[in-house]
Amino acid sequence: MKSICVYCGSSAGASAVYTEAAQSLAKQFVDNDIALVYGGGNVGLMGVIADEVLRLGGKATGVIPKALMDKEVGHTGLTQLHIVANMHERKAMMADLSDGFIAMPGGVGTLEELFEVFTWAQLGFHTKPIGVLNVDGFYNSLIAFLEHTVASRFLKAEHLAMLFNEADPQKLVQRFRQYQPVLVDKWLKKQDL
To answer: What is the annotated signal peptide range for this record (predicted)?
Structure first.
């Protein structure tokens, strides 16, 4: 586990608990010699986690579309900053540079990124760990909804189990470090219904 991609808000959120969690996750990365890969912004939780990783002596790589860089939201003090043409290139490069994916609290962009890599794992396109840092119960409703999709026979329980759900950054990073890929057939079979 050399690098983990973190998806998170371009806002800091309504509570200081989100900023504190971003700083704690940054510390876990540095303590475990894991580099940060993220969206390259200098705002919100994105800026918080990158700044903290760098402050603690770690490595932070950002990937940002030119249009966002032009709006002056790009972080210019990173270990590496890749400026790409669009969001599709951004997400592909972030995935290529990462050994796993963590979603912190964020908005629809964060959710979209999380669900894309979750879908890729479900389809067997990658075997990297995926998790949510469930700060202050932020993802409780989402997890409940995903459990509903399992009960409704739209998602296998084995696929939902691929999504780690932890409130503690240390526990989440530990689970990533101990991760062993599990391949599960995507499609529900008639006999499973």
So the answer is: none
Residue 152 backbone dihedrals phi, psi, to 5 degrees: -90, 0
Q: Locate 167 and state its tokens.
A: 């409130």
CB of 162 closer than 8 Å to CB of 126: no
pLDDT of 87-146, one tens digit each?
Answer: 999 999 999 999 999 999 999 999 999 999 999 999 889 999 999 999 999 999 999 999
Q: How far is CA 61 from CA 34, 51, 79, 98, 177, in A?
A: 11, 11, 6, 10, 20
Q: Which CATH number fits domain 3-178: 3.10.150.10, 3.30.590.20, 3.40.50.450, 1.10.540.10?
A: 3.40.50.450
C-alpha distance from residue 107 to each of 103, 112, 159 (Å): 10, 9, 23
